[in-house]
Amino acid sequence: MRRWSILFFLCFIARAQELSVTGKVAYISSGTVYVSVGRVNELRDSTLLYVVVGKDTLAALKVFAVSSKSSACTVLSSKREVVVGDNVVGLIRRQEEVKIAVAAPPVDTVAVQKAETLVVRVSKPVESPLISVQGRMSLQYYTAQFDNSDYNLNQPGMILSLRANARGIPLTMEVYGNLRSVSRGGMSPFSGNSSNESRIYRLSLEYDDQFNVVTVGRILPLYSPSIGSIDGISIARRFGNFTAGGSVGFQPSLTLQGTSTDTKKMSLFARYQGHGFYDLTVTGAYARTYVSSQLDREAVSIGLSAYSTNGLSVYAYGDVDIRAKNGDRLEVSPFISSAFLMVNYRLFDFLTLGIGADASQPVYPFSTVQSVADSLLDHKPRSGATFSLNATFGNGLGLYNSFTPRTSDEGFGKDYTNYSSLYWTDFLSTGAMVRGTYTLTANGFTTAQGYGIHLQKNFSGLDCTIRYQQSRYTTLQFTQSNISQSYGVDFAALLTRQLSLIVTVDALRGYGSAMNAVFTELSWRF
């Protein structure tokens, strides 16, 4: 009689898993786009994200700095301006080991008895290194040559962004900064007379066990942006959806290079984050700065962002300064130093409307104006509004327009900027993207009109863009009109999975001068 037995082998199979992430554009500043997804969503440096409306992709973003709940991105390409509240999606590929049981074929008992030994060797999974490092290092060179060589500029540099994690310990080190020198005029970019403009934006060690978060080094507390960077320590504790804590330390030097003990800082902060019908985040912070032992500034910051699946997004932020200068004293006199509100709503699948408002009032650190007469300080409040429209007509056609009026001495709306962009993402079914732009700007001194066209196409992995812009500006006092023209060509290529190259060439004619500029970046992701 034949007896059958079944042997099971445990096998480890590495498979690629695709993780989809979705978020929103939370904030935009100086060309950097901040999105509401971060390390908890497994984002890493150099992750690609996309801004989408309906089924249309409007922009490609690349992550260059990541925190636990948000990320900072650069815009690689766009059909229109990215705005707060835009939807962001991404796809993260990761490797995971899957343990499965495999049944061996039936084996005759007699045949098994004849076998002297049955040895099954199963390879052990490769153990992760004690310290894993991920990040990006970029070599950059920028040169601008003017018709007057005294204004020539040469700027070589290296950017380093890395994140190191310890195995089995919730410990992370982050470094983000650059090594950069700048030479002006006819100097060599590597001469001893070049100025050192290196910066250290973040150099920190963080312990995060999902309950306690302790960060030491040069940090930027996410819950108190008004206080800026701190060379010190931040301690926080999570209570469900709430996070609360504080930070204390010193203001980095103005060059963001060395450390300084001249200005002391402290802040208390809290955040609530919910994921119901609305993805809601509310932050609040109280911050103080001291010069020596004298109070220099005291402020409260409040922030709110909310997103819903029906296409409504709200972003708001405000600073209230508690004290103001009165003679040679700093007295309690609360005033709104800055406020911003932006609401976007997807009215239809093809139409998104936005409306926003902002207000600000100059703030002076007490140590810099203590001896200045109050009458010489500008306390005039300023305000503005933003109205935007984004429409997609199908077949890759779309329109974006934003109108931003502001207050001025002549009244509200006399100063304004209007930006319009008409784009076609698949021009005549060639795979090329064509975008035409029109800009109209007016203020109390000048008016300007600008026209531009962008052509973009990918050739076998090489992304090419040709740009042309013409602006006509009029000086109202002299009723003089001038024309400026700019030309540009951009190339971006992924040489390997880790190595990429960007080259940008620009030429400017107008404003009483001529300038040619070249920027190159060789970036290695590790």
Structural class: mainly beta
Please compute the radius of gyration using only Cα atoms: 28 Å
Give the proportion of residues in helices. Answer: under 10%
Terminal CA distance reads 61 Å
* Oligomeric state: single chain
- Major sheet description: 22 strands, antiparallel, barrel
Number of domains: 3
Q: What features would you describe in this structure?
A:
With 526 residues, the protein is mostly beta strands. Helices cover 2% and strands 68% of the residues. It is built from two helices and 31 strands. It starts with a strand and ends with a strand. Mean pLDDT is 83; it is low at 1-17 and 95-124.
Quick description:
This protein is mostly beta strands.
Please write out the topology.
Elements: E1 4-5, E2 8-29, E3 32-35, E4 48-53, E5 56-66, E6 71-78, E7 87-103, E8 107-108, H1 109-114, E9 131-146, E10 153-166, E11 171-184, E12 195-196, E13 199-208, E14 212-219, E15 230-239, E16 242-250, E17 263-275, E18 278-291, E19 294-308, E20 312-326, E21 329-348, E22 351-360, H2 366-369, E23 382-394, E24 397-406, E25 415-427, E26 432-442, E27 446-459, E28 462-475, E29 480-494, E30 499-510, E31 513-525
Antiparallel strand pairs: 1-8, 2-3, 2-7, 3-6, 4-5, 4-7, 5-6, 9-10, 9-31, 10-11, 11-12, 11-13, 13-14, 14-15, 15-16, 16-17, 17-18, 18-19, 19-20, 20-21, 21-22, 22-23, 23-24, 24-25, 25-26, 26-27, 27-28, 28-29, 29-30, 30-31
